[in-house]
Write a structure and sequence with these properties.
Elements: H1 4-10, H2 16-19, H3 21-28, H4 50-61, E1 65-69, E2 71-72, E3 80-84, E4 87-91, E5 97-99, E6 107-112, E7 115-120, E8 123-128, E9 141-142, E10 149-154, E11 157-162, E12 167-173, E13 175-176, E14 183-188, E15 191-196, E16 201-207, E17 209-210, E18 217-222, E19 225-230, E20 237-241, E21 243-244, E22 251-256, E23 259-264, E24 269-275, E25 277-278, E26 286-290, E27 293-297, E28 303-309, E29 311-312, E30 320-324, E31 327-331, E32 337-343, E33 345-350, E34 353-358, E35 361-366, H5 367-371
Antiparallel strand pairs: 1-35, 2-3, 3-4, 4-5, 6-7, 7-8, 9-10, 10-11, 11-12, 13-14, 14-15, 15-16, 17-18, 18-19, 19-20, 21-22, 22-23, 23-24, 25-26, 26-27, 27-28, 29-30, 30-31, 31-32, 33-34, 34-35
Amino acid sequence: MPDLSAIKSQCREVGLGLLAVSVMLGSAMAASGGQAALPIAEPQGSRLCGAECRQRQAAAVKKAIAPQFDSATDFSEGMALVKVEDRYRYIDPQGRTAILPTFEVTALAPFSNGLAIAKIGSAFSCLNRRGELLAHIQFEGLSRFAEGMAAMRMGRKYGYINTQGKIIVAPQYELAGAFSQGLAAVKLNGQYGYIDLLGKLAIAPQYQDAWQFSEGFAPVKMANQWGYLSRSQQLTIPPQFDGAFPFSEAFARVRKGQRWGFVNRQGKLAIPLQFDFATDFSQGLAAVQLQGKWGYINPAGQVVIPPQFDYAAPFSAGLAAVQVQGKWGYIGTAGQWVVPAKFDNAAPFVEGLARVQVADKWGYLNRDMIKSGTAPS
């Protein structure tokens, strides 16, 4: 199952967050016939009590979740969406079934802001953490919640609802993106601007394209070139790039032609355009590609882990998933192998757990196990 965050990072229009929701749902949501299914994992220690119960529960937290799922998403708000034999449910960090829908659904998504998108027939609704369907929420399109708001579609127009399902911004936009730092990019009359959480126009539509705000700046496109807009509506970094992405850890990756580099928040090209490709900085390192191989640089632009991998993911929880000779494993920030390359696919750690694939089954590694030296070798 492709990583939703990776799909988003490649979208060139911020508005695609809603327009492409069906495409994303095809990768990150799960189709279900709504039938009952056998439990994936029995609750551990559910009939115990006292000290023994606490010991068993503590031990359960340390366990990885063995590969057993046909598909799986990253954990989000304490749960992950998984599939077994075409039946979908949410599991907790111990692999136990947390929510098994009792009603018929055609698609589900991970939780955000306490709610998960549920597709019922051709309509989009929401599921709460008790597994209840919020039947009063029904729209033709619905994005994941962010900052208490979700873009929805009625007919060909987009607006926003809050987590109670109340329409806060009436459908009126051609496209609508997710809220970030109190603002959301919207498209009106063919141009992009930004609205605030009350639905008021904060920055008038005037851009060819626009991304969400991050660290006080948003990539915007004018005259076919990308630059950066500040919250004070100043083009702090004039449009000059063929591609631009949101800031992460004080740097933003940019592209001219086929070369990638990084700008800082002062608008300077802090790391020259020299890479075949680059990812965002995460935990002080950014994965970069040179001559077909991936390695990592630091904020000074120095190569600290030489290019040697077939692919390299961002660091999280002190580890990064990397691929060599068709297999995935995890390295530490010094470039040392921590988990051998033995998986058919692997994802970054999220909420202490990382998705890994063995043959055609998905499971999860537990970061605490690796830290204690008990990770499987």
